[in-house]
Structure formats: C-alpha cells, structure tokens
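User: Please run a holo structure prediction.
Assistant: Happy to. Please share the sequence and the ligand.
User: Here you go; the ligand is NAP.
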Amino acid sequence: MSSDLGYRKEATTIRIGILGAGAIVKTLLEGWQRFGWPGEVMVTNRSNAARLEALAASFGVVTTRDHAALLQDAEMVLLAVRPGQVVETLQQDGPSLHAGHLLISLAAAPDCETIAALLPKEVTVVRAMPNLAAAVGHSVTGLYSQQGMIGVVQSLFEPLGTTVWLDDEAALTPFTALFGSGPGYLYHFVDLLEEGGVALGLDRDQVARFVAEMAFGALTYLKESGATPAELRDEVATPGGVTAAGIAALDAADLRASLLTCLRAAVARAEQTQAHARADLFASFAHQSLDNAGQLP
Ligand SMILES: NC(=O)c1ccc[n+]([C@@H]2O[C@H](COP(=O)([O-])OP(=O)(O)OC[C@H]3O[C@@H](n4cnc5c(N)ncnc54)[C@H](OP(=O)(O)O)[C@@H]3O)[C@@H](O)[C@H]2O)c1
C-alpha cells in the first residue's frame, strides 16, 4: 500500500512514524542510513521546524507537522520524546492510534501499563532502549513487550547492534542505567582523561586526537581477545609499575563506589520519572468523564 504522505520508499514496506526528532532519533537514522532502512520513515516533533528540515536534508526522511496524519498512516509508531513528555504527548496523540498499531516507546519511563492506559485498547506496546552506538551498528538494545519477542520490532533494531529481549519489564530500568546511559559515562570518562592529559602538559590537539583512539584500541582488544577486563587490566598493571600506581590512586579515591553511585542515581531518576508519569496519568483521568475512569489501571 502506498503512502499518501510520501514516505521514503524502500524495499521493505513497514511504515514507521516517529514522534520526536532529538538525539536518539538522529542516532537511529544514522544507523539505518548506514546499515539499511527497515521501512518507510516519517518524523515529526513538537515545534522545532529547523530540526525537521535538518533531518530531511541529512537522511532524506519525510517530515511533517501533521501528527494525526502521520499516526493514521504509520503501522508502527516510535515514541522518542523525553520521559517527562510521554504522558502529555500521548494525551494529545494517543487517540489517533488505532487497532493493529504497534507503539514502541524509547523512553526510560514510564512503563507499558501507564503507556497503554493512554492508548486505544488494541494497540500493542513495546519498550526499547537503544544507545548512541546504534549510529555505528554497536548499540546494545534492551527490548520488552508483554507479548514477548515481536519479529517486526526485532527487524528494526537488529541492524543497529545487539538486541536483548528481557523477560521482566522491571529489568529494563537497571538495563537503561547501564546500557542506555553507558556511552554517556564513557564519554565523560574520556573527556576527563583528556583534561588530565592537558593538565600534565600534553598538547591539547594531540590529546583530543589520540585519547579516543586509545580507548577504541583498548576496547577493541577487550572484545577480540576474549579476556576479561580484569585480566587485561592486570596485564597492563605490572606490580609496582606505572599503571599499578595510577590504578591504586583510583582505588584510593573509591572509583568503584562512585560508579555504583552513578548507576543507582540513574535508576533512581528513572523510578522518579515513572512515579511522576503515574501521578500525571491519575490527574488526567481525574479530569475526564466517569466513562473513561474504567480504563485506569
Ligand atoms: N539520547 C539517548 O542516548 C537515548 C538512548 C535511549 C533512549 N533514549 C530515550 O529517547 C527519548 C528521547 O531522548 P532524546 O535524547 O532524543 O531527547 P531530545 O533530544 O530532548 O528530543 C526530544 C524530542 O521530543 C520531541 N517532542 C517533545 N514533545 C513532543 C510531542 N508532543 N510530539 C512530538 N514530539 C515531541 C522534541 O521536539 P521539539 O524539539 O520540537 O520540542 C524533540 O524532538 C527519551 O525518552 C530517552 O529516555 C535516549
């Protein structure tokens, strides 16, 4: 079936409508441009017209300001707004979804039950948590649906890296804290190493060029050697040597505790967002007629 909205035409025919045009959508588009489009893609956002123009120019995707038309025409909807924007977005756009629609939320929260309460009953809800490395085909993407693995969803994320279907939705929160946010922690670490190199008197441009190469080389070797990180660390850190002295300083500063605190803070933020979303949902139902109150989970 052809699309009146003029989706990008590809060999496959799934029509994917995307609500949101931010960082993660750009990442997915980069990945699909590189490794193969899973279907026909159309993107909309809230108000940033320049952003839509930029995505259309870079990726050739069709963009529109007409949310209702996009949702009517799409078979699969990717919800890529911030967690705190999910309830408001679905209050506006949820009624435009219809039976047979598949909605994939990329948000760290809220959960499937909260999302489903804002949609017509027959819509299937999936949650997906890719990461920024989707752009280069190395995302670790967590997926969950109450129905278990769904082939058409798998085909969306498979070209972008490794996919993991979780049995338990609760596991998606720690998964997000580690694998969704993980690239951010690593970039922070690399950025701080760069700063440290400059503080030691190394040339800023050189440091900027080589720190990423060093990190890439070390992680590639970790993956290809089959050794554990601890084994490779011990190979580098000869007792009494230079690296061992550096690692001892990290241990003395309790880097281990800092990283655990980091992951727990990410989990806590996701749980807080989930609680806010539930509160928003209850507030919205409280303002609706008694007819709708029966849908409240
Ligand atoms: N960034 C990551 O690495 C990553 C990884 C995995 C999952 N995620 C998840 O992906 C989601 C988006 O993250 P992001 O980093 O891409 O955020 P972002 O850069 O802030 O983008 C948010 C997007 O949502 C749009 N939006 C807001 N309200 C909308 C509405 N009612 N209808 C349609 N579009 C609307 C915004 O449009 P305007 O600009 O016009 O306001 C913007 O394009 C989050 O829930 C996050 O948890 C992110």
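The chain has 13 helices and eight strands.
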